[in-house]
Amino acid sequence: MIRKLAAEFIGTFWLVLGGCGSAVLAAHFGGDGNPLGIGFHGVALAFGLTVLTGAYAFGHISGAHFNPAVSVGLWAGGRFPVSALVPYIIAQVAGGAFAGWILYLIASGNPGFSIDPAAAGAFASNGYGALSPGGYSLVAAALCEAVLTAMFVVVIMGATHGRAPAALAPVAIGLALTLIHLVSIPVTNTSVNPARSTAVALFAGSGAMGQLWLFWVAPLLGAVVGGGIYGWLGREPAAAD
Fold it and tell me: Whole-model pTM above 0.90?
């Protein structure tokens, strides 16, 4: 179990450092319109690449969840023991928080770096209302996070099903997370991962911390729904089915 928790810690660290790091350090490098800035398309791809590479690196050790919602969704779908949920979630949140701290130290090396707690997406944080990049409401943000997390869990469970081509599972999962970001960055700055949200909210200030609850509740609820759906869809059929 120690090796599994270490893999979850490192994998979540990688996801937050790579994904949120791309948003903080590279998305607007040189200012808007600068060809060196990667924009939100680049950020979406960065999140997908962290999951893809992390899954290949750590999937054989821990299952490469890197996300409390994924762990809960796999439990809801009958793929993960309830006894391992709390240890996995603690390791994921700790790994994400460590990455957030490292990212903060790196970003602080730029003399012009500052965090405005009232700004949407401050330090790659998630938000709704005034803290949504597109000004989307609480209800819209909750629905977006819940539905996209549910579909993410469905893709993960389908891609890792015994009948699916195992070697390509990380590719499908990474592309799914990229797609999710392309859809939802304007809405919530994309969470679908409570550990990722917590990691940057700790440094983004009171605004992000005040809205963090949603980015635990909505992804976890969506994960339970997604896990339940695929637990039914993907089960081996009985003779009478």
Answer: yes
